[in-house]
């Protein structure tokens, strides 16, 4: 089954990019979710994608082993350094802690936004970021995609 992106409860203030996942990326994301549930810890992976017009095509992910991590088993520093261009276009991580009686948070947290900002600051490039909050649902965001214009990465 395809991975669903977004939520009916959101009304975007501006046009948003659409997201499509390759079969391989979809399987890898489901595995990331299952591993996260089994470990009872959040997991993070590098995310590969390309953009055509106003659609982000997620082509692959590479899970990171948890180490030097916070209480949720995610190291923002490691993911920022490891998940940069040209091979990677951002990160994906899981939200497993229940936010409501039956659902984890479906949106990026304040800490998530800080990690995304660190990625932008490090790579000086627009990025693609997703969070998985069930076996079939994700919330993804991409900056610089609507209209097909993107900033290129800058190496230090």
What does this structure look like?
The chain has 156 residues and is of the alpha/beta class. The chain has one domain: 3-Layer(aba) Sandwich (Cytidine Deaminase, domain 2). Helix content is 24%, strand content 26%. It has helices at 23-39, 76-82, 110-123; strands spanning 4-5, 18-21, 44-52, 55-63, 90-94, 128-132, 137-142. The protein has a seven-stranded mixed β-sheet. α2 (76-82) runs parallel beside α3. The longest helix is centred in the N-terminal third of the chain and has 17 residues, at 23-39. The model is unreliable at 7-12 and 145-150 (pLDDT under 50).
Radius of gyration: 15 Å
The pLDDT mean sits at 80
Q: State the low-pLDDT regions, or none.
A: 7-12, 145-150
**What structural category arises from helix and sheet content?**
alpha/beta
Percent of sequence in beta strands = 25-35%
SSE pattern, N- to C-terminal: EEHEEHEHEE
The CATH superfamily turns out to be: Cytidine Deaminase, domain 2
Q: Quickly name the level 1 CATH class.
A: Alpha Beta
Characterize the overall form: globular
The end-to-end span amounts to 41 Å
Provide the spatial order of strands within the biggest beta sheet.
1-7-6-5-3-4-2
- Identify the CATH architecture: 3-Layer(aba) Sandwich
According to DSSP, the number of beta strands is 7
Q: How many structural domains can be distinguished in the coordinates?
A: 1
Tell me roughly what share of residues is in helical segments. Answer: 10-25%
CATH fold name, please?
A: Cytidine Deaminase, domain 2
Biggest sheet character:
7 strands, mixed
SS summary, helix count: 3
């Amino acid at each position: 089954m395809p991975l669903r992106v977004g939520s009916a409860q959101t009304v975007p203030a501006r046009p948003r990019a659409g997201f499509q996942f390759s079969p391989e990326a979809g399987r890898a994301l489901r595995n990331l979710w299952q591993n996260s549930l089994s470990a009872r810890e959040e997991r993070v992976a590098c995310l590969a994608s390309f953009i055509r017009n106003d659609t982000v095509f997620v082509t692959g992910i590479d899970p990171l082993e948890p180490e030097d991590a916070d209480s949720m088993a995610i190291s923002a520093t490691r993911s920022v350094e490891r998940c940069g261009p040209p091979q990677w276009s951002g990160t994906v991580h899981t939200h497993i802690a229940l936010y409501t009686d039956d659902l984890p948070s479906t949106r990026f947290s304040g800490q998530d936004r800080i990690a995304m900002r660190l990625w932008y600051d490090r790579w000086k490039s627009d990025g693609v970021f997703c969070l998985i909050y069930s076996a079939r649902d994700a919330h993804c965001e991409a900056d610089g995609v609507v209209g097909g214009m993107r900033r290129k990465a800058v190496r230090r």
